[in-house]
Amino acid sequence: MAFSLRHLIALIILSLELFASAGAAAPVPETAPIEFTVFARHRQRSLQFFPDNQSPPQKLEFFGNTRSPIYTFKGGRRIPIYATLDLNAYFKALAAAPADNPPPKPVPVAVADIPEAITRALLLFIPVPNPSPDGPAMRIYVVDDSPRTLPAGYAAVINASGREYKAKLGEELLDVPHGIGGKVPVKGTVELRLAARDGDGWVVGGRHTFKLGDTDRVSLVFFPPTSPTGIAPIIRTLIEDVAPAGSSGSSARVATADR
Protein backbone atom coordinates (compact mmCIF):
# COMPACT_ATOMS: atom_id res chain seq x y z
CA MET A 1 0.00 0.00 0.00
CA ALA A 2 1.55 3.30 -1.10
CA PHE A 3 1.65 6.10 1.48
CA SER A 4 1.33 9.79 0.69
CA LEU A 5 3.00 12.39 2.91
CA ARG A 6 -0.32 12.90 4.65
CA HIS A 7 -0.58 9.16 5.26
CA LEU A 8 2.90 9.06 6.77
CA ILE A 9 2.20 12.00 9.07
CA ALA A 10 -1.09 10.43 10.07
CA LEU A 11 0.64 7.11 10.70
CA ILE A 12 3.04 8.70 13.17
CA ILE A 13 0.20 10.54 14.90
CA LEU A 14 -1.95 7.42 14.96
CA SER A 15 0.78 5.26 16.45
CA LEU A 16 1.43 7.85 19.18
CA GLU A 17 -2.29 8.08 19.94
CA LEU A 18 -2.75 4.31 19.96
CA PHE A 19 0.19 3.90 22.33
CA ALA A 20 -1.25 6.57 24.61
CA SER A 21 -4.75 5.02 24.56
CA ALA A 22 -3.20 1.63 25.36
CA GLY A 23 -1.60 3.03 28.49
CA ALA A 24 1.91 3.31 27.05
CA ALA A 25 2.34 7.04 26.55
CA ALA A 26 5.49 7.32 28.67
CA PRO A 27 8.79 6.70 26.86
CA VAL A 28 10.14 3.19 27.30
CA PRO A 29 13.90 2.69 27.69
CA GLU A 30 15.64 1.10 24.74
CA THR A 31 16.97 -1.55 27.13
CA ALA A 32 13.48 -2.79 28.08
CA PRO A 33 11.87 -4.32 24.97
CA ILE A 34 9.47 -7.25 25.06
CA GLU A 35 10.21 -10.19 22.78
CA PHE A 36 7.29 -12.35 21.77
CA THR A 37 6.15 -15.08 19.40
CA VAL A 38 2.60 -15.87 18.31
CA PHE A 39 0.59 -19.01 17.64
CA ALA A 40 -3.02 -19.93 16.83
CA ARG A 41 -4.78 -23.16 15.97
CA HIS A 42 -5.66 -21.70 12.57
CA ARG A 43 -3.24 -19.43 10.76
CA GLN A 44 -4.09 -15.75 11.05
CA ARG A 45 -3.13 -13.92 7.86
CA SER A 46 -4.15 -10.34 8.53
CA LEU A 47 -3.02 -9.16 11.98
CA GLN A 48 -0.52 -6.39 12.69
CA PHE A 49 1.01 -4.47 15.60
CA PHE A 50 3.05 -1.30 16.03
CA PRO A 51 6.61 -2.26 17.15
CA ASP A 52 7.11 1.21 18.69
CA ASN A 53 5.65 4.69 18.52
CA GLN A 54 7.61 5.71 15.43
CA SER A 55 7.36 2.68 13.13
CA PRO A 56 4.66 1.57 10.68
CA PRO A 57 2.60 -1.50 11.59
CA GLN A 58 4.29 -4.88 11.24
CA LYS A 59 2.48 -8.00 10.05
CA LEU A 60 2.38 -11.01 12.37
CA GLU A 61 3.28 -14.31 10.72
CA PHE A 62 1.59 -17.46 12.00
CA PHE A 63 2.86 -20.98 11.33
CA GLY A 64 0.83 -24.18 11.51
CA ASN A 65 2.92 -26.18 13.99
CA THR A 66 5.66 -23.93 15.40
CA ARG A 67 6.14 -20.62 17.09
CA SER A 68 6.36 -17.58 14.84
CA PRO A 69 9.55 -15.58 14.36
CA ILE A 70 10.47 -13.48 17.39
CA TYR A 71 9.00 -9.95 17.36
CA THR A 72 10.13 -7.00 19.46
CA PHE A 73 7.80 -4.47 21.06
CA LYS A 74 8.96 -1.21 22.64
CA GLY A 75 5.88 0.46 24.02
CA GLY A 76 5.09 -0.53 27.57
CA ARG A 77 3.46 -3.73 28.82
CA ARG A 78 0.31 -3.72 26.65
CA ILE A 79 0.48 -4.86 23.02
CA PRO A 80 -2.59 -3.96 20.93
CA ILE A 81 -3.18 -6.15 17.87
CA TYR A 82 -5.04 -4.75 14.85
CA ALA A 83 -6.71 -6.25 11.80
CA THR A 84 -4.96 -5.23 8.59
CA LEU A 85 -8.33 -4.49 6.98
CA ASP A 86 -9.19 -2.07 9.80
CA LEU A 87 -5.89 -0.20 9.45
CA ASN A 88 -6.22 -0.02 5.65
CA ALA A 89 -9.80 1.18 5.95
CA TYR A 90 -8.71 3.86 8.42
CA PHE A 91 -6.03 5.25 6.11
CA LYS A 92 -8.40 5.15 3.14
CA ALA A 93 -11.03 7.07 5.11
CA LEU A 94 -8.38 9.46 6.40
CA ALA A 95 -7.32 10.34 2.85
CA ALA A 96 -10.88 11.28 1.98
CA ALA A 97 -11.78 13.08 5.24
CA PRO A 98 -11.30 16.80 5.92
CA ALA A 99 -8.40 17.63 8.22
CA ASP A 100 -10.71 18.87 10.98
CA ASN A 101 -12.91 15.77 10.92
CA PRO A 102 -10.73 12.63 10.87
CA PRO A 103 -12.31 9.16 10.99
CA PRO A 104 -12.47 7.18 14.26
CA LYS A 105 -9.27 5.39 15.20
CA PRO A 106 -9.29 1.61 14.64
CA VAL A 107 -10.12 -0.65 17.58
CA PRO A 108 -7.74 -3.53 18.44
CA VAL A 109 -9.07 -7.03 17.77
CA ALA A 110 -7.07 -8.22 20.77
CA VAL A 111 -4.76 -6.85 23.46
CA ALA A 112 -1.94 -8.68 25.21
CA ASP A 113 -1.11 -7.48 28.73
CA ILE A 114 2.44 -8.60 29.55
CA PRO A 115 3.32 -9.02 33.24
CA GLU A 116 6.39 -7.12 34.43
CA ALA A 117 8.44 -10.27 35.03
CA ILE A 118 8.11 -11.51 31.43
CA THR A 119 10.72 -10.46 28.87
CA ARG A 120 9.85 -13.09 26.24
CA ALA A 121 6.26 -14.21 25.78
CA LEU A 122 4.33 -16.71 23.72
CA LEU A 123 0.99 -15.18 22.69
CA LEU A 124 -1.71 -17.78 22.01
CA PHE A 125 -4.67 -16.43 20.04
CA ILE A 126 -8.05 -17.98 20.95
CA PRO A 127 -11.20 -16.78 19.10
CA VAL A 128 -13.92 -15.37 21.35
CA PRO A 129 -17.26 -17.16 20.74
CA ASN A 130 -19.93 -14.67 19.61
CA PRO A 131 -17.91 -11.50 20.35
CA SER A 132 -19.78 -8.26 20.96
CA PRO A 133 -19.48 -5.55 18.26
CA ASP A 134 -17.36 -3.32 20.52
CA GLY A 135 -15.44 -6.13 22.24
CA PRO A 136 -12.29 -8.06 21.30
CA ALA A 137 -12.62 -10.76 18.64
CA MET A 138 -9.82 -12.81 20.19
CA ARG A 139 -8.49 -13.65 23.61
CA ILE A 140 -4.74 -13.87 24.08
CA TYR A 141 -3.09 -16.25 26.52
CA VAL A 142 0.22 -14.73 27.62
CA VAL A 143 2.76 -17.44 28.45
CA ASP A 144 6.18 -16.79 30.00
CA ASP A 145 8.28 -18.35 27.25
CA SER A 146 11.87 -17.51 28.13
CA PRO A 147 14.35 -20.44 27.98
CA ARG A 148 15.03 -19.82 31.65
CA THR A 149 11.37 -20.43 32.52
CA LEU A 150 10.99 -23.40 30.16
CA PRO A 151 14.48 -24.83 29.54
CA ALA A 152 15.56 -27.73 27.37
CA GLY A 153 14.28 -31.10 28.55
CA TYR A 154 10.94 -29.78 29.82
CA ALA A 155 7.34 -29.66 28.65
CA ALA A 156 4.67 -27.13 29.56
CA VAL A 157 0.93 -27.64 29.11
CA ILE A 158 -1.35 -24.74 28.15
CA ASN A 159 -4.94 -25.92 28.37
CA ALA A 160 -7.28 -23.62 26.43
CA SER A 161 -9.76 -26.40 25.65
CA GLY A 162 -12.45 -25.51 28.16
CA ARG A 163 -12.16 -28.99 29.74
CA GLU A 164 -10.11 -30.39 32.59
CA TYR A 165 -8.04 -33.55 32.20
CA LYS A 166 -5.88 -36.03 34.04
CA ALA A 167 -2.72 -36.91 32.15
CA LYS A 168 0.26 -39.20 32.05
CA LEU A 169 3.09 -37.30 30.40
CA GLY A 170 6.11 -39.54 30.10
CA GLU A 171 6.51 -40.91 33.62
CA GLU A 172 4.66 -38.03 35.29
CA LEU A 173 1.02 -38.14 36.44
CA LEU A 174 -0.62 -34.75 36.61
CA ASP A 175 -3.87 -32.85 36.71
CA VAL A 176 -4.45 -30.54 33.75
CA PRO A 177 -6.83 -27.75 34.80
CA HIS A 178 -7.86 -25.00 32.44
CA GLY A 179 -5.07 -22.44 32.01
CA ILE A 180 -1.30 -22.41 32.02
CA GLY A 181 0.36 -25.30 33.84
CA GLY A 182 3.84 -25.85 35.23
CA LYS A 183 6.82 -27.57 33.59
CA VAL A 184 7.41 -31.32 33.50
CA PRO A 185 10.75 -33.04 32.73
CA VAL A 186 10.67 -35.07 29.49
CA LYS A 187 13.19 -36.61 27.09
CA GLY A 188 13.35 -38.73 23.95
CA THR A 189 10.08 -40.10 22.58
CA VAL A 190 7.26 -39.07 24.90
CA GLU A 191 3.69 -40.30 25.05
CA LEU A 192 0.88 -38.19 26.44
CA ARG A 193 -2.29 -39.98 27.58
CA LEU A 194 -5.37 -38.08 28.67
CA ALA A 195 -8.51 -38.92 30.64
CA ALA A 196 -11.52 -36.62 30.92
CA ARG A 197 -14.46 -36.66 33.31
CA ASP A 198 -17.71 -37.87 31.77
CA GLY A 199 -20.61 -37.83 34.20
CA ASP A 200 -19.52 -39.67 37.34
CA GLY A 201 -16.55 -41.41 35.74
CA TRP A 202 -13.51 -40.92 33.55
CA VAL A 203 -13.06 -41.79 29.87
CA VAL A 204 -10.09 -41.85 27.54
CA GLY A 205 -9.45 -38.29 26.38
CA GLY A 206 -6.85 -38.87 23.71
CA ARG A 207 -3.26 -39.93 23.07
CA HIS A 208 -0.40 -37.94 21.59
CA THR A 209 3.30 -38.63 20.97
CA PHE A 210 6.28 -36.44 20.19
CA LYS A 211 10.06 -36.71 20.16
CA LEU A 212 12.58 -34.32 21.70
CA GLY A 213 16.26 -33.82 21.02
CA ASP A 214 18.77 -33.15 23.77
CA THR A 215 18.38 -29.36 23.51
CA ASP A 216 14.64 -29.24 22.79
CA ARG A 217 11.77 -27.96 24.87
CA VAL A 218 8.06 -28.28 24.10
CA SER A 219 4.83 -26.41 24.77
CA LEU A 220 1.71 -28.56 24.48
CA VAL A 221 -1.29 -26.40 23.61
CA PHE A 222 -4.79 -27.84 24.12
CA PHE A 223 -7.50 -26.29 21.96
CA PRO A 224 -11.24 -27.12 22.24
CA PRO A 225 -12.43 -30.47 20.81
CA THR A 226 -13.75 -30.49 17.26
CA SER A 227 -17.38 -30.62 18.48
CA PRO A 228 -19.17 -29.22 21.55
CA THR A 229 -19.73 -32.77 22.85
CA GLY A 230 -16.19 -33.91 22.03
CA ILE A 231 -13.77 -35.09 24.69
CA ALA A 232 -10.29 -35.19 23.14
CA PRO A 233 -8.70 -31.76 22.74
CA ILE A 234 -6.97 -30.61 19.58
CA ILE A 235 -3.28 -30.64 20.55
CA ARG A 236 -0.55 -28.57 19.00
CA THR A 237 3.03 -29.49 19.92
CA LEU A 238 5.41 -26.53 19.75
CA ILE A 239 8.95 -27.93 19.85
CA GLU A 240 11.86 -25.51 19.96
CA ASP A 241 15.60 -26.08 20.04
CA VAL A 242 17.04 -23.78 22.70
CA ALA A 243 20.68 -24.68 22.09
CA PRO A 244 23.07 -21.73 22.59
CA ALA A 245 23.58 -19.50 19.56
CA GLY A 246 26.21 -20.84 17.20
CA SER A 247 25.71 -24.51 18.08
CA SER A 248 24.17 -27.01 15.67
CA GLY A 249 20.47 -27.83 15.69
CA SER A 250 17.27 -26.52 14.18
CA SER A 251 15.12 -23.93 15.92
CA ALA A 252 11.84 -25.78 15.58
CA ARG A 253 10.42 -29.09 14.38
CA VAL A 254 6.97 -30.46 13.71
CA ALA A 255 5.77 -33.22 16.03
CA THR A 256 3.62 -36.19 15.15
CA ALA A 257 0.01 -35.57 14.24
CA ASP A 258 -2.75 -35.55 16.83
CA ARG A 259 -4.19 -38.93 17.68
TL;DR?
By secondary structure, the protein is mainly beta.
Adjacency order of strands in the biggest sheet:
12-9-15-16-17
Class from secondary-structure proportions: mainly beta
What characteristic shape results from the CA principal axes? Answer: globular
Please give the share of residues in helix: 10-25%
**How do the SSEs run, as a string of H and E?**
HEEEEEHEEEEEEEEEEEE
| Strand residue content | 35-45%
Output mean pLDDT. 83
The rounded distance between the terminal residues' Cα atoms is 43 Å
Major sheet attributes: 5 strands, mixed
Count of DSSP H/I helices: 2
Low-confidence stretches are 22-26, 249-259
SSE inventory with pairings:
Elements: H1 5-21, E1 34-40, E2 47-49, E3 58-59, E4 71-73, E5 78-83, H2 84-96, E6 110-113, E7 120-127, E8 138-144, E9 154-159, E10 165-169, E11 172-176, E12 179-185, E13 188-198, E14 201-212, E15 216-223, E16 234-241, E17 252-254
Parallel strand pairs: 1-7, 9-15
Antiparallel strand pairs: 1-4, 2-3, 2-5, 5-6, 7-8, 9-12, 10-11, 10-13, 13-14, 15-16, 16-17
